[in-house]
Amino acid sequence: MPDITRNILWSVLAAGTAFASLPASSAHADNAPADLLARGEYLATAGDCVACHTAPGGKPFAGGLKIATPMGDVVSTNITPDPDHGIGKYTEEDFEKSLRQGIRRDGSHLYPAMPYVSYSGLTDGDVKALYAWFMHGVKPVAVTPPTTSLNFPANMRVAMAAWNMLASNTPPESGDSATFDKLRRGRYLANALEHCGTCHTPRNMMLSEEQDSYLAGAPLVGWYAPNITSSKTSGIGNWSEDTLVQYLHTGHVDGLSQAAGPMGEAVEHSTSHLTDEDLHALAAYILQVPAKEDSAEHKPRESFGQPVEAADVRSGDLTRIDDLSEMSGQYIYDANCAACHGPNGAGTSDHYAPSLFHNSVTGAGRPDNLIMTILNGVDRTADGQHVHMPGFDHDSDVQRLSDNEIASVANYVMTTFGSGDHAATPEQVAKLRKDIAKTP
């Protein structure tokens, strides 16, 4: 697909991150049972609604998060129950149409960055619980975020009617989702509430999910959501159910993987708050998804590498502060990475700084996630532990590395500790650097 076509389509998909606040008569009840509110809150957490609908430093669900696209900035809207600035005048029917059909109260179409394609699979009972909680459990916030204003053709919502006819919506589930058996509950969580396929399933020319490649991996605003099918070489077929549960609960498994970027955010705001029963249901379902192979990966990502006894590259000579010459990847690693990850790449003894070998990021068949981690850093709180790694992009407070330096250190790390030299280039880093602003 030509880049310009993909950019335009992604702009269209990115534009509709929320429900619109439109005048109407309020029709929701003045109160709701406590158990219904508790269920609605849990479902909203599982759906990770707060991620897109809360600006940095802003109040929960008040909108205002800006996402840069080639066609302009997308701004998420207020979905608190404020009657004038949020969705306080939505009836339950209005809410259901927005949530499951992507249709606003005025009849216009939402853009599918609001994952109604997945939420269409929600049961009637869960939609009712979500509505009750958003109307009675969320604090109203009297703030109207800036209006999203995109350039042509991304500003044409009417095009979404045609797109919806081609998209594969998740069929609605029936019955009480709380009573589903383990695999059915796991499928419900994966396909509807957690909408795993939104990130991990590749898309076709029209940016509709390719259902025959479900969870086979896909690019995502600079990051790469990896193959999480049951393939033992390209996916996570070697992971146990308990291992995947630990990852979803904490975002980290020693000697295996750690969550950063959008997945780190999903762990922090969503999966780390699920019950053990739901985590096991979700893990059990994902681990039986049919295997899909990836031409870029022929060996389990976590199987690469070993401790490296590298020679000390420090000469003892002082470096002048005005010496702006770029260092090699090995020197950059020694100066910026070795203090935490160790000269041999083994990380810290408590695994706070992870090992760089037996690591699914450095063992991947693509350098994208390593580059984005170097640029973005890691900032994740889950299971009561805050994990932080500084980024090294142009806003870094520790060291601002050039595109060439980041490419050099990424190639050094993957060659020394991971799956080999993937020939990352400064041009590739520059392109991924631009995507940082697009990451919620």
UniProtKB/TrEMBL annotation:
Cofactor-binding details, from the entry: Binds 3 heme c groups covalently per subunit.
GO cellular component, one term: plasma membrane
Pfam families recorded: Cytochrom_C (PF00034)
Cofactor(s) needed for function: heme c
N-terminal signal peptide: 1-29
Residues involved in heme c 1 binding: C49, C52, H53
InterPro entries on file: Cyt_c-like_dom, Cyt_c-like_dom_sf, Cytochrome_c-type_DH, Membr-bd_ADH_cyt_c
Keyword list, A-Z: Cell membrane, Heme, Iron, Membrane, Metal-binding, Repeat, Signal
Sites where the protein binds heme c 2: C196, C199, H200
Main location: membrane
UniProt GO molecular function: electron transfer activity; heme binding; iron ion binding; oxidoreductase activity, acting on CH-OH group of donors
Subcellular location: Cell membrane
Binding site for heme c 3: C337, C340, H341
Domain spans labelled Cytochrome c: 35-138, 181-290, 324-417
Protein name per UniProt: Sorbitol dehydrogenase
